């Protein structure tokens, strides 16, 4: 089986295909996707930091100058929303916006959140156990990060049910070759999410609080350092990125534990399981072993050489995070889950200027979630049936994970 992001068998287990790609060379042309695939850890890590690449090219070129077709006019709401967020901005705009948002994710800020995150994780885990089990996705994995990032931004609790559907529809456009219906849903979600945030911003402008939206309003109104569109796009990105990856890491991680029962048993039996550092090592290994973000795309802004291959300006690179995290040149026994792995420079949070801003918060949420569900004083979780993977490849996760206890 080769690299085929639309094949269900590949999505369920892309790692044999990654092994073949690494054996073929440092960069491999994929006719089906029109991209150069980069499968090795050293190259992925270096190229994430290379300023000859960009998440966008519009800060330097028009679509025509770059040899690309402009997106259809009816997709404009999505592209305006996405193009003004941190993920797609390039310097100097990226540095300006990131500085304004970064203070919400400092280690000190995250440390202050720890008791509340830990309490919520234990409440959700208790609810799952009280019900005798259920879908780990909807019972714990989704509500925890949604509640945390919504609290940071100041989204009213009554509105939080809107966020996950909007996010899922918008993130559908990050997949390869989204179809017309996926694009339509993304545009509708972009319009609705943006309208919701505009109304919330007006409300916070009249009644500011201690939340991040109020802080962004101050930067917009008083200092003129942030446009309203950048403010809206930043909030959407934080809400999307702030829970999509954490949700899928939780579910992918538990599926990996169930498939490696000896590792799960050793983790539960470890007397240090309640120590954040011990559990953090395990979480990093779960992030490496089955990362939720399999591919990160970058445009080639200036000709670049990778090994013996010159990649011309205008081409697109697909940095294969899932392959890089299983590269035997960097990780000993890479296809084995080793929850004690100490030397673990996985690329699941990216690198360079687009390194995940919320990585400290994601780690806190993940360690709290796994600690609550692995509590050795409580009955262990047991898998009810083998799960099915969602269709998406770029953002890869399970449809559900049914457990009992």
N to C succession of SSEs: HHEEHEHHHEHHHHHHHHEEEEHHEE
- Gyration radius (Cα, Å) is 21 Å
Question: What's the CATH H-level homologous superfamily of the domain at 63-289 and 351-404?
Answer: Cytochrome P450
Total number of helices: 16
Strands of the largest sheet, in order across it? Answer: 1-2-8-5-3
- Give me the count of strands: 10
Structural class: alpha+beta
Could you say which overall geometry the principal axes of the C-alpha atoms support?
A: globular
Per DSSP, what share of the residues sits in E-state strands of 2 or more residues? 5-15%
Low-confidence stretches: none
Q: Overall mean pLDDT score?
A: 92
- Give the class-level CATH name of the domain at 63-289 and 351-404: Mainly Alpha
Q: Within the CATH hierarchy, at the fold level, what is the topology of the domain at 63-289 and 351-404? A: Cytochrome p450
Q: Helical proportion?
A: 40-55%
